[in-house]
Amino acid sequence: MSEDAEIKGVIPNYYNLIIDKLNKIYEAWDNNNINIALFRTLKLIPFLPRKIKNQLNPERIRIQKDLDAISQTNGFNFSNAQEKVMYKVKTISIKEFEPLIDKVTSLLDQEHLLTQNYGIPTKSRSMKDLQLTVDTARQENGE
Amino acid sequence: MPHQEKSLGDFLADAITKNYLITIAITSYTQAKNQTRNLPFGLGKTTLAMELSYLLNGGSISDNYQNRNVWKKVHEIMAYDPYSMGVLLEPGRERAPNVIWDDVQATAPASQSVPTAVRSLANFISTERPECACVIFTCPNLNFIAAPLRKLVNFEIIVSERGLYEVHKYSYYKDFKRPLQDRMHFDYVEEVPRDQPFPALPDFEQQWYDTWRTARKLQLYPNMMKNLKTYTQLQQWEQTGETKTLTISGHAIKGPHGKCYIEVPDEFKGKLIEGAVTVNG
């Protein structure tokens, strides 16, 4: 037992990934980078469990199409075009981000992916199961 | 937090049928996954240890823990002190599914200098695979027991409240940057469902346990009282500054340069050095 062992990090698992990405989305929003927050949310959706992803996909595709359409915006020079794009992106982000992230977190919560004891699924096994396992192994062993 | 795929039952079955040795500590004073009562005593650690032993020794839940023949077997594999634990682990005897060392903190507590006898017992337990498949300790908290015994523990069963427990496994992982310092993890294994708690001991068994524990405690009591008496007397002497003359007999040892030494009882050694006790004659 190495008593002065340091914690170097957390063993990665799927739940940690989700919490990490949600944290990054929150940080972006908190820093007034709502565009980045929206992009990060859109990028997270394909990684969610199929059941949640299927519910969110129509919305994701719609927002993505709107954003793609903005990229065609013209201006009298490059800088002006970029400004227009950024303005339109921000308009979409302000309109779409909050309802989208609300839906994402609600669905994650419905599937107990946010509150499941740091991602450990509870494994309930009674003493009867324990007895059955031991007895079966003994029988197989010819005892 | 990683978790184990195998259940405690799988590990116990492997230990019994495939010749492994596992060590389980049953505790109650530390919270892990579930909210606990955080109480050191009275939550049912020994009850759980005995009921697990009942199942491992051929008993069944369907008989409602009433088979007295199985309980007799359980009684034979229970120890309360290091000596009786040593007796249970006699080499060459028939392999037992498990042994129980109850209230380890009472007889092998955590201390700065762990007695050599306890160290040697811990070393001996590590070689007990041919005689025993599973060693079960009960103690309020792993920090309460001597370090050599603590290092043997593979599984910790935490009794969070009466009837409920959760199982965790201690696992070690190699730190490749510092290969001599392994990283330790506490892996969640399983827990008992809230609607199927482990029951209290049958009345006759509870009576047996109470009597058994009283008898074991009575064996420890005289020595403790002797030490307490000497300690208290010395404290009182210090406070009053009273001088008393004691006649102590001890072995005389012939030393070098024509000197002679007398062995002083342990309780006076410290006081002799501090000058609280002087030797005349």
Task: Describe this protein's structure.
The complex is a heterodimer of chains A (143) and B (281). Chain A is mainly α. Chain A has five helices and no strands. Chain B has a domain at 8-201: Rossmann fold (3-Layer(aba) Sandwich), CATH 3.40.50. In chain B, the strands form two sheets. Chain B has a seven-stranded mixed sheet. The mean pLDDT of chain B is 85. The chains are: A mainly alpha (143), B alpha/beta (281).
N→C terminal distance of chain B: 68 Å
Low-confidence stretches of chain B: none
Structure summary, number of beta strands of chain B: 9
Q: Which bin fits the share of residues in helices of chain B? A: 25-40%
What do the pLDDT scores of chain B average to? Answer: 85
Could you write a compact summary of the structure shown?
The complex is a heterodimer of chains A (143) and B (281). Chain A has 143 residues and is an all-alpha fold.
Topology:
The complex is a heterodimer of chains A (143) and B (281).
Chain A: H1 14-30, H2 34-44, H3 50-70, H4 78-110, H5 127-140
Chain B: H1 8-17, E1 22-27, H2 45-56, H3 68-76, E2 78-79, H4 82-88, E3 99-101, H5 104-107, H6 116-125, E4 134-138, H7 147-150, E5 155-161, E6 164-173, E7 183-191, H8 203-240, E8 252-254, E9 260-262, H9 266-274
Parallel strand pairs in B: 1-4, 1-5, 2-3, 3-4
Antiparallel strand pairs in B: 5-6, 6-7, 8-9
Considering the chains and any ligands shown, give keywords for the structure.
heterodimer; A: 143 residues; mainly alpha; rod-shaped; B: 281 residues; alpha/beta; Rossmann fold; 7-stranded mixed beta sheet; two-stranded antiparallel ribbon; 37% helix; elongated
